[in-house]
Amino acid sequence: MSEKEQEQIFLVSGICCADCAKNFESELNDIDTIKSADLNILTGKLKIDGQIELTELRKLGQKENYQIDYYNNQVLAVPKKYYHAKEFLVMVLAGTLLLLAIVFEKMQIGGQLSVGLYLLAIISGGWNNFKKGFYSLQQKKLNMSVLMSVAIIGACIIGQYEEGATVAFLYAISELLENWSTEKSRQSIRNLMDLTPAKAIVKRGREMVELLVGDVNVGDIILIKPGAKIPLDGSVVSGESAVDEAHISGEALPRDKKIGADVFAGSINTYGFLEVAVNKLAQDSTIAKIINLVENAQSQKSPMQKFIEKFAEIYTPVVMVLAVMVGVIPPLLYDGDYIGWLYRALALLVVACPCALVISTPIAVVSAIAQAAKNGVLIKGGIHLEGLADINAIAFDKTGTITKGEPKVQNVISLSNIGENDILQIAASLESLSEHHLARAITADSKDKQINLENVYNFIAIPGQGVKGVIKGQEYLVGNTKLFNNISPEINQLEQQGYSVIIVGTATTILGVITISDYLKDNIKPVIKRLLQKNIAVSMLTGDNSAVATLVATESGIKEFFANLLPEEKMLVIKKMKESKKVAMVGDGINDAPALAIADIGIAMGKKGTAVALETADVVLMKDDIAKLDYVMELSKQTKNIIKQNITFALLIKFFAIISVFPGYLTLWLAILADMGATVIVTLNSMRLLKKASNI
C-alpha cells in the first residue's frame, strides 16, 4: 500500500481547547497502526498516516465531545458552525444552582440544602471538565482540565463549597467563550470557502446538468449566468463579460473577459452570459490553493510559536510542583495553617493553566494569513509571516517585477529627410507580419498614433537580424545592427544607454531608428523609495546586459544591481547577501526559482508568474501588484507586535496572579476569572488583524 493510500482524512467538530486537541492528537500517535496524526484545531481537519476505523475514532473522540466524520475531498469545508447551545444551557444551569445556593445560605434556609445545591452546581458546571481531566490522567498528562478538577475537588474537601461551585460556573462560561472565540477564527476560513458555489451547471450535449463541483471534469463546459459565482477555473469559450476577481487577486475593478480569457473559481460574473471550459479540478483551483494555504498556516510554525509551545509544556508541571510546595512547606515551617495554604495551592493550580499563552500565537497567525489572502497576497505559513518582519534586504528580478515585461516604443528618430511618422509607418507595416516581441511594440505604437499601415510585398524574415519587404515599389529593411552596414556612433550610443534599437532603412541608407525599452511598473518608484526609507537594502538581479540594467536601475531609484546573470548566478548572489542580511527575493520566472528557493523569503508574482516560481515561493502576490509588498511587510510587523502583546499580557497576568497567591489575595474564582479573561483578550486582540485593510 502506498503512502497516499494509507493517508486518511477526517473532519472533527467541537474543538475549543488547543490543549485538549493536542492531547487527542498525541493519543492517536500512540496507536500502533498510526504512523502520525495531525489535527488542525481551526479547520478541524485530521490527517492520519496509517489505519483506524471511523467507529474507533469516534469512540476516542467522545471523551473530548468531538463529532468526527470522513472528510470529503471533493468539497472544501471546515467544521460547520458549532452552535454552543449545550454549553450555554450548562452555564445557565450551573449559574442558577449557584445563585440559589447562595440565596439559601444567606437566608439560612435549608442548612444542608445549600451545600447540596453547591454540589449540583459543581457537577453540572464541571462534569465535562472532570471527564477531560480523568481522560488526561489516564494518558499521564497534565492539562487545564486536570488542574481545574483538582482545584474544585480540593475546595470541596476543605469545605469551600461556594468557591468550588463558583469555579465550576466560571469554567462553564470560560468554555463557552473559548468555543465562541475559536469559532470566530474559523469564520475567516469559512468566508473564503463560501466564495465558491457547491454546484455547477454543466453542458452535456444539448442538456444542462447540475453537478457537484467535485464531479465536474477537466474539459467540461460550464455555464455562468450574469451575477453568478464562477465555480471552477477555466477559459472562456463563448460570450463576453466583466468578472469581479477581488477575492482572488485583490483587484477592485472587474476585468473584461472575452473568448480565450482565463477565469477563476470564486470570482463573480457581472453582466454577460459565459461558457467556460474547465481546465482544473475543484481541488486544484486557484481558490482551493488559497484555502489550503490558509488552512495549513499553522503547520509551518514560526520560531515564536514553537518557543511558546515548548515553554507551555515546561510551565504547567513546574507550577504544579510549585502548588504542591505551597500547600505543604509553609504550614510545616511557618504557621501550621494547612487549610489556608492548601486553598492558596488550589488557586495557584487554577492560574497555572497556559491556555492564553498557547493560543496567543496561532490565532494571530491564521487571522493575518486569512486577511492577506483576502487582499490578494498568499503567505505559505506562520514561519514566513514572521520572517517577513525581519527582512532587511530585498533583491528584485527586473523583467515582470520592476518592469512590466511589455516592451514599448520610447522614441522615433529620423536620420534622413523622411519624417518620424513615415519611419514608424514603414517599420510597423513590415513588423505587422512578424511575431517578434519588439515587433508587437512597434505595431502597438503605430496603432496608438493612428498611423495607417501600407501593403507589404515579398516579405522575408531574417532570423537574428530583422525583416525586409517591398512597400510602394521600394525595398525596406527593419532590424538590428547586424542587418546594416556603417552604423553611426549615435546608434551605438543609444544601445549603450540601454535601449533596444530598431533601425529602419534601405539596402544602402539608414533612414531612422526606433528605440524600445521595457517600462517601469507604475508604482515601483514609490515602493523602492519607501523601502530605502525603512533602511532596507534594495538591489536588482537581471540576465540583461549592463546598459539595460543601468537604465532600469537609474529610473527606479535602485543603486545596486547585478547584470548578465544566469539562474544559478542569481542564486549565488542571494547566497552571498545572506551572509550579512535577511534577504527576500522577488521574481516571476523559471530563471528566478533557484534564487526564490535559497532566499530567506521568496516572493513570486502570481498573475504572470510561472508555476515553478509560484511553487517555490513563500509569498505570492496574486495581482502582480508590487505595492502589496509594503502591505504584507507591514502586516507581518503588526502580527509580530500583536503576538508579543499577547505573550506579554498573558505572562503578566500569570505573574501577578501567582504573586498574589502567597499573601492570600487570590481566590479560586479570581484565579479562573484571570485565566478566562486573559484567553478572551488575547483572542480578541489577535482577531484585530482580520480587519486590517490592504492600505495599512
Strand content: 15-25%
- Count every helix, treating DSSP H or I runs of 4 or more residues as helices: 24
Radius of gyration: 33 Å
Low-confidence parts lasting 5 or more residues at pLDDT below 50? Answer: 73-77
On the 0 to 100 scale, the average pLDDT is 80
Q: Count the beta strands.
A: 26
- Provide the number of structural domains: 5
The class by helix and strand makeup works out as alpha+beta
State the major sheet. 7 strands, mixed
The outline comes out as: elongated
Q: Looking at the chains present, what oligomeric state does this protein adopt?
A: single chain
Strand order in space, largest sheet: 14-26-25-24-15-22-23
Q: Give the fraction of residues assigned to helices.
A: 40-55%
The end-to-end distance, rounded to whole angstroms, is: 50 Å
